Amino acid sequence: MRISQLRQHLRNLGAAPLHEGRVLRAWLQGRSLDTRRRRAEDYFPLTLRDGLPALFAELQALAVVQSEHPGEDGSARLLVKLADGQTVESVLLPRDGLCVSTQIGCAVGCVFCMTGREGLLRQLSSTEIVAQVVLARSRRAVKKVVFMGMGEPAHNLDNVLEAIDLLGAEGGIGHKNLVFSTVGDRRVFERLPLSEVKPALALSLHTTSHALRRWLLPRAPDITPEELVELGEAYARSTGHPIQYQWTVLEGINDTDADLEG
Question: Residue 105's beta-bridge partner residues?
Answer without folding.
Answer: 120
